[in-house]
């Protein structure tokens, strides 16, 4: 009898996770099926409850459930608890355990594909949801000098900023030396060049520009506000390139798409579910094929 791993989110039409995760499972000839379980907010609780059935090994969690899923789990790993978001669930015996592999996946892609070291750098973050939380905590731990968080809902940006400042204060008591300056700006600030004038890295953690989304074909930033030489990292991976990255290239910026992060975080999830070394090269190859061919 096959086992199952699910992808829980809404919508999921854009997702390529089933393609590269199944390729990894097939590489080891495991009788496991990775499936997309499109789940609206009202169906989240029963879908998580379904993970307790013996044929299910766990799930990935994506937009918009990464924060909402926390109280539905039995245990949450320290990093996921600190970030306040879960993207991987593992069933062990009769318990559901929550993990966050987004933070590590984000940094691996930033280092290996973007050739960027965050320490001492100024960063602007677009968005304040579950993936933005992982990104921000990762950058603080990597000792970025400043973070500016810009979000449509100011209260969410403030909540994230307060969590980061609290973590930074606590770290000083442990002599970790985290000193990132964290500020927030209203969404309208994206229209102002001065918002980005001194930054080294811009990270889009929103779904703007994502294929099949209401904002498909749109860019959160205009050509006029993007400085040349900055690295623009769009966590949206479908389409590739995104409207934001096309604009950034015209502005003379360096660009990094979200495909590598998707695969790196998925590889870490694969290891949690199976205990096997993830075949990252195979996963990357299959992901690129699924998104529209080798690049």
In words, what does this structure look like?
This protein has 295 residues and is of the alpha/beta class. The chain folds into two domains: 3-100 and 262-291, Leucine Dehydrogenase, chain A, domain 1 (Rossmann fold, 3-Layer(aba) Sandwich), CATH 3.40.50.10860; 104-259, NAD(P)-binding Rossmann-like Domain (Rossmann fold), CATH 3.40.50. 35% of the residues lie in helices and 20% in strands. The chain contains nine helices and twelve strands. It has helices spanning 17-27, 44-50, 78-83, 102-112, 130-141, 154-173, 243-250, 259-274, 280-291; strands at residues 3-9, 32-38, 56-61, 75-76, 88-92, 95-99, 122-126, 146-151, 181-186, 201-204, 231-234, 254-256. The strands form two sheets. A six-stranded mixed β-sheet has the order 2-1-3-5-6-4, sandwiched between helices. Strands 9-8-7-10-11-12 form a six-stranded parallel β-sheet, with helices on both faces. It is globular.
CATH homology-level superfamily of the largest domain: NAD(P)-binding Rossmann-like Domain
Beta-strand fraction estimate: 15-25%
Measure the end-to-end span: 38 Å
**Widest sheet, order of strands:** 2-1-3-5-6-4
How would you describe the shape? globular
- Tell me how many strands there are: 12
At CATH level 2, the architecture of the largest domain is 3-Layer(aba) Sandwich
Question: Do you know the CATH topology of the largest domain?
Answer: Rossmann fold
Order of helices and strands: EHEHEEHEEHEHEHEEEHEHH
Q: What is the count of helical runs?
A: 9
